[in-house]
What we know:
alpha/beta, disordered C terminus
Amino acid sequence: DYEQSNYIMCYMAPHLGSALAQTPTVADLKPDTIKVTTGYSMNLHSKILNQDRTIMVSVPEGYATSYKKYPVVYILDAQWNFNHASQNLAWLASKDCDFIPQSIVVGICSGGEKREHDLTPTQGSGNGGGADSLYMFIKKEVMPFIEQNYRTYNYRILGGVSYGGLFVMNAFVKDPLYFNGYIAMSPSMWWDNQIALKNTEELLSKNTGLPTRLYITLANEGESMGVDSLAALLKKYSPKQLAWKYDKHLDEVHNTINYKSLWDGAKFVFSKWSYPLVDFATEENPFTVPSKNGT
């Protein structure tokens, strides 16, 4: 009743005031706060693109106190994917998990109005066609910068989602042995009348080698994405040395597929991987460790 409610409020008021008075503010804690970061963001001027491009870099725990070299995972659309990629890959490499080796993560930002242009291989509806130039920026400018300034082991992974996944497949077709693993997450294989499917079929039907790894995924987008057709091509033509895997996650949507795909994809492209005693890699032919029987 009213009297009981009034009694409770009168009793609690001084105690609430005391509790609020004891709660610190951010200003109180500022001298002792620690800035939490996943890496560094920097602008790299590209002579190939004739513009500044933002890249992000994350080094693994213990990097500053070790002499070890690390494989590198290059991730497109860093404006969306860099933070979760850095954190998830670090957790997979932690002592508690030990699924993958510790890695340097490099993110390439590709957002804004030019995203479609930068990530697609042909003109398509009129806005595409810049993927080859962006790839040369990554290969000829970003990677030399990373390999000169960080302790990198010659084992490279390239990952992207949606248009970024299409970019990964275009890189796989045109430069299939430059990266040791390709992670194409819900790639937009529908682009420009499925031109990437045609190019992939031509590559697979004419090559008996391809000692690399390819991981592809699809969310609940359906057959119109063209990823089922890509998997069918791989099943028909895939050479033994190409280790590939296709996962469908019907419980995911287009905007969430990157989280689960990168987690599972990293475990696949690094599976059965270990540091060889000698690194026989060259710039154009990185050392590749295929698994037995191409699986």
